[in-house]
């Protein structure tokens, strides 16, 4: 079967961005089930035919909404090593990402019904995790902390897991032990202080 040659609008077009914004707002306000071509167009103040001018299918629209935010997160994550205290910056990044996770939760629910979204979630989660592990590995090396005692993979997983659990529980109105956990992490990050600059040793 020949691939479709139907013209698709430019990915940089203003109307495409407006449609993405509208779809995202609908997901946050009413849930993914409310996202239809007509509802998105109505929210955007555009004709519904434009949805299919910029996106061949609704899957493409959902995927574009997800990828836009995921790429923004990856770009921000990749700058954390430039922070004065990368470990503290990573912890704050995890907290911020988790606390704004309503959209992510909608995509998780949607992934149960759309394979392309599930595959994208897995791929971007893997990329986030790998970058996080490398950040932790680099920072622990600067502190001269033995990776056998504090494996970077485990530290990264725990930091992300704790922040997501707190965000999920907070969304439900359950905050028992949250303040104590935040204080504990802040105190121990403060004890570490800022890491020494990484030095290069000539061989």
UniProtKB/TrEMBL annotation:
It comes from the Bacteria. GO terms for molecular function: DNA-binding transcription factor activity; transcription cis-regulatory region binding. It holds the Pfam family TetR_N. Gene3D superfamilies: Tetracycline Repressor, domain 2. Residues 13-73 form the HTH tetR-type domain. Keywords: DNA-binding, Transcription, Transcription regulation. InterPro entries: Homeodomain-like_sf (IPR009057), HTH-type_TetR-like_transc_reg (IPR050109), HTH_TetR (IPR001647). Residues 36-55 bind DNA. PANTHER family: HTH-TYPE TRANSCRIPTIONAL REGULATOR BETI, HTH-TYPE TRANSCRIPTIONAL REGULATOR RUTR. This is HTH tetR-type domain-containing protein. It comes from Nocardia macrotermitis.
